[in-house]
Design brief:
Blueprint lengths: L2 H45 L7 H29 L10 H27 L1 H4 L17 H14 L5 E5 L6 H10 L1 H6 L2 E6 L6 H11 L10 H12 L4 E8 L5 H5 L8 E6 L2 H6 L4 E4 L5 H12 L9 H11 L3 H12 L5 H12 L9 H13 L3 H9 L9 E2 H11 L14 H18 L4 E2 L5 E3 L2 H12 L6 E3 L11 H4 L4 E3 L19 E3 L22 E3 L20 E3 L21 E3 L18 E5 L1 H4 L19 E5 L9 H7 L7 E6 L2 H10 L9 E6 L5 H7 L8 E5 L6 H7 L4 E5 L20 E5 L6 E4 L13 E5 L6 E4 L12 E5 L21 E5 L26 E5 L20 E5 L19 E5 H6 L5 H6 L4 E4 L8
Helix pairs in contact: 1-2, 1-3, 2-3, 5-6, 8-9, 12-14, 13-15, 14-16, 16-20, 18-19
Amino acid sequence: MTDEAATAALFKVYGIIAHWINLKGNYKRLRQEGKKLKAIRDAIEAEICKDRITPATREWIAKAKMIESEVKDLKTKYKNEMGHPWRLVRIWAYPILGEEMKEKYSQVHSLWEEGNLKREELDAELPEPVRKRHAAKIEENSSLHMAVQDLLSFLEDEQIRRVGVWGTVGTGKTTIMQNLNNHEQVAKMFDIVIWVTVSKEWNVEKLQEAIMRRLKLDMECFGEVEENARRISEELKEKKYLLLLDEVQDFIDLNAVMEIHNNIDSKVVLASRSRCVCYDMEADELINVKRLSPADAWNMFQEKVGHPISSPLIKPIAEQVVKECDGLPLLIDRIGKAFRKKEKDVSLWRDGLNRLRRWDRVKTEGMDEVLDFLKFCYDDLDGNKRDCFLYGALYPEECEIYIDYLLECWNAEGFIHDADELVDDSNAFRDARDKGHAILDTLIDVSLLERSDKKKCVKMNKVLRKMALKISSESNSSKFLVKPCQGLQDFPDKKEWEDASRISLMDNQLCSLPEFLQCHHLSTLLLQRNNGLIAIPEFFFDSMRNLRVLDLHGTGIGSLPSSISNLISLKGMYLNSCTCLIQLPPNIRELVQLEVLDIRGTKLNLLQIGNLTWLKCLRISLSSFFRGIRTQRQFGSISAFVSLEEFCVDDDLSEQCWDEVLMEEVVTLKKLTSLRFCFPTVDFLKLFVQRSPVWKNSFFTFQFCVGYQDNTYSQILESSDYPSYNSLKLVNGEGMHPVIAEVLKVTHAFKLVNHKGVSNLSDFGVNNMENMLVCSVEGGNEIRTIVSGDRMTNSVFKNLEVLHINNVLRLRSVCQGRIPHGSLAQLISLTLTKCPELKKIFSDGMIQQLPELQNLKVEECHQIEEIITESENLELEANALPRLKNLILIDLPKLRSIWVDYSLEWPSLQRVQISECHMLKRLPFNDANAAKLRCVEGQQSWWEALEWEDDAFRESLQPILHLQIAQPQVCM
């Protein structure tokens, strides 16, 4: 053998040995990784109930089992090779087997990493122990507070499994239940708290569905009652749970619902109007939520009515009114507000008392009793106001209803019908809207409707909604079919809709409609947000010649049928957010009564509605101007809408798509009373201001945005809580253009975003901002102060109510220099956020200018050392902030002082929230100067480090103290 041959043979042997070693190493790694994969799969299956495993997790488990089987096969194959009597001959197969193992190891490792992520997501797949409810605050030592304490005592008693809370409508049962749900002691007692509101139309399946959703069980497997009960019981068998059932009206077999007998450590609290229902539910203890005592009822009525009740002429009548309310808090609230508007007119008070007395005495338990009493507020309305109130019942309970939309529906229905009283026939639509606002205010004044947290919305209390539906059911001329948010997949039966004058099936899961709907009296049809509805039958609208309101927004329809031409009375049609809608029939022009049309977010173009030149209100997306039109240069169609009073253009395009021709068409609209528009540049705004005949009209209202930012238009219009204000938003602009000054003079809400070329708002001209009520400044690197007092003699921002400053990086102070007396005199809310160079808030005596300030929030302003600068407020009066209610200070690492001592009075202060302010060691409050303090929020470590002169005051704050344990900082 030559040397070369020997070397080659040697290398071959080495290669074989290397393959053998690699094979053993690959086998060892694969076996270890396989064990890890199986361990994590077993852990996931053990930690997640099989009924709650998500499809993605179920797929991962299936993959893991499959690959574990493949690993097992490879292990068997390896052992066979290693134990084969001819293994030395078969050694050439080792590289192939080794590569298989190496590849399988990579797959196993990848799946194991994915499994680790699945484990981290377990918390999201598990139900939270307590789901907080929005609950009215209960005063300590009140009857409702004592009821909560009694419930806690019963829950601690091992001999008591079920408790019933009973009493008539409006006595506070739900409030008690909500506070019990949220109570920290309950969270410590139970592994999970399950809240279910039992609807009037409840059944076992609906109750099971609510519980299963709360437990985050897989709803795809929702089956027969017995199987559902088994799954719920299996999920809860090792948990101590509290089941809270609100508004129980009939006996519920909880064993059929959830096999409750299998869990002896858990408890049930139910609230019902009926004591018999509590007994039927086998309650071990009962709590009777009684009506208020005469003294408590009188105190509550006094609070609702206010100062008129102090008159010696009114008081004797008021005492009789309170007696008629019979101690029901809900009635006292509503009736008190109704009598408040009578002020000190004795005749109105006597008349109101006599009308209240005409109601029969309470004879039945339950809802009818309160509904009959509440009908007093309803009957006190004029006829058209009654119709407007009843219309609110078409929407889900507690649903937030856009005011503009609601008023348009009222007007379309003819509820705002006093045409002879309208001020200006040329702007009848606007005048009708104004009159609608007056009606709305009346309904709010008597609490039949209430404003939501969003000022542009209202909502109806669920009890009042039930009253409205009851009244409708008893009417011969106004029958309602109302089934929103009920998960309907099929249209109701004919007997339900054939006599209906108004139908509301919004927010369901309808996928189809009847071929023909014989509804000659139907005036409103609400089908919005049935997103599975993709087509409307051809003859569906044939009999609806009296239909006035049609809402299809948020459905999946692609077109409208030709029978739409039969809607000769239609006044309002809402197609917005029908993202698949691409076509309207040519006979749409037959809708000669149509006044309001909303096609925002559709694929329609302006040419398709070009014949509807009589429209009074049009809402459209900017893209509709250009879709299928741009190449034809047919912009002139907008000028054909000669009757248009309200025009809203939703900006959904980029700056490059704009054309001056569009703006030239808009300025031809002579009857506009309201315009919502986004101008790409100041020059386009200038064109409108100079050439539009409506700009000089004192009744013209606008919401303008100038410049581009992501979703700019929706931000200025949809997020604004000031819908009736003239709004101007400047985005990424520069300097001060004369046309901006002109628009600012009539602007109520102003927002400045990333503006260049100004160092303070005074640069826009203080005289131009006298009508400003809301101001927001965001971003920008050149603004040093908000108001400069240098060389000023007249008051500035004297009507401003809200001031928000956010992310202004170079801001040094809110006011520079001493500002004239009367400046900022109406300011209610001041918010300062993320201003890293801000050092002074109330400097140069500014605090003396803020008698109306109620809300102060300062967050992430890292240079702030004092809220009220001592050296610049030496002559500060004790009552400098008489109306301040809420003080929020967050992440102010250098803050040492709110105020130097106890010399200031805080007569209105109710809530103080302080977080991440570790250098703040003393508070300027005591029991004498902050008597109305109701809530103190902060971190445990901060609270414990505070220094006190009065330990008694510190102890007095304990009941209202809400502390959080600070999370440790993670150093990277």
